[in-house]
Design the sequence.
């Protein structure tokens, strides 16, 4: 049992607090309370993950810092600050796996909404206007999924099942990937962008990927293509994206994440034709909280029994690299 587990929450505490408390000496902290409760804790469950509070509350003395941090999210960019990354005694785990299918379903829904112009149909309905119009088919269209981790693979499988042609973009090129078939690296990325009708971002936000969808990448995309981002807003140069959308070079975009969240009211993205804005909810489902806590409890039991943890993050790369042991 950890000497002390701090649970960082905002608004509502996680479910199954009774189970957590039976397995660990548990205290609960808001973001404001964290600086007072984190020093000396053995473990941290970050039920809130997109926050500067963890970085700001992290003890200056490494001996006072937690030895294990678990993120209730797949993305861990908020945790990749030097004091945590450079301390070899701190293990970081995430919630990879919980969001795979929900985000894949959301991406398919966004592609269908764009291709069938559901937003336009709903707008006509609000005005009681009867306007039949032709829509696009997605069968046979090409989707480039940028990010070949578990979420990207789930997206690829679902889009392929819907009849789309799918390829991937990642660190290493290959032609025999079980979900993507072809995976492009930087050497062939621009040629792949030129062929893709939809570019789907599913990569983690790391120092290497921040701003990766910049003006040259957008210019390399196929005229009339659409961009979908369900990863992190920091992957995209939003000013360059607005420019390409305004010029009509891209047909549209579906954006669930943004450089600044909530998206400022003055952002032109709110009103641009062909753009769908959603409030960072691609992975949120009615069963999300239960899945997140089940994974954390599994790891909490593993740690108490000295077993390998699931979803150990390579802190230098910013994502899970090695295969995980099965659930208990």
Sequence:
């Amino acid at each position: 049992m950890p000497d002390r587990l701090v649970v960082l929450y905002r608004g509502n505490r996680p479910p199954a607090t009774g189970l957590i408390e039976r397995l660990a000496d548990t205290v609960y902290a808001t973001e404001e309370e964290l600086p007072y409760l984190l020093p000396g804790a053995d473990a941290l469950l970050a039920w809130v993950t997109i926050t500067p509070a963890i970085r700001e509350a992290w003890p200056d003395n490494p001996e006072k810092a937690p030895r294990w941090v678990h993120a209730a999210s797949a993305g861990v960019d908020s945790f990749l600050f030097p004091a945590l990354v450079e301390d070899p005694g701190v293990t970081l785990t995430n919630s990879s796996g919980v969001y795979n299918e929900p985000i894949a379903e959301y991406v398919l829904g966004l592609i269908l909404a764009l291709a069938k112009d559901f937003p336009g149909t709903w707008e006509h309905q609000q005005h009681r206007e009867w306007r039949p119009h032709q829509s696009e088919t997605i069968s046979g269209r090409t989707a480039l999924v940028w990010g070949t981790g578990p979420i990207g693979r789930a997206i690829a499988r679902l889009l392929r099942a819907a009849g789309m042609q799918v390829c991937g973009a990642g660190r290493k090129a290959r032609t025999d990937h079980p979900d993507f078939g072809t995976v492009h690296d930087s050497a062939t990325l621009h040629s792949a962008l030129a062929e893709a009708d939809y570019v789907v971002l599913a990569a983690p936000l790391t120092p290497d990927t921040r701003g990766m969808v910049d003006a040259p990448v957008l210019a390399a995309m196929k005229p009339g293509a659409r961009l979908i981002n369900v990863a992190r807003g920091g992957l995209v140069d939003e000013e360059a994206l607005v420019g390409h959308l305004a010029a009509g070079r891209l047909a549209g975009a579906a954006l669930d994440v943004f450089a600044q969240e909530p998206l400022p009211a003055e952002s032109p993205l709110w009103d641009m034709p062909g753009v769908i804005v959603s409030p960072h909810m691609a992975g949120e489902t009615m069963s999300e909280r239960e899945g997140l806590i089940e994974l954390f409890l599994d790891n909490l039991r593993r740690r108490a029994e000295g077993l390998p943890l699931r979803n150990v993050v390579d802190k230098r790369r910013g994502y899970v690299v090695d295969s995980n042991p099965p659930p208990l």
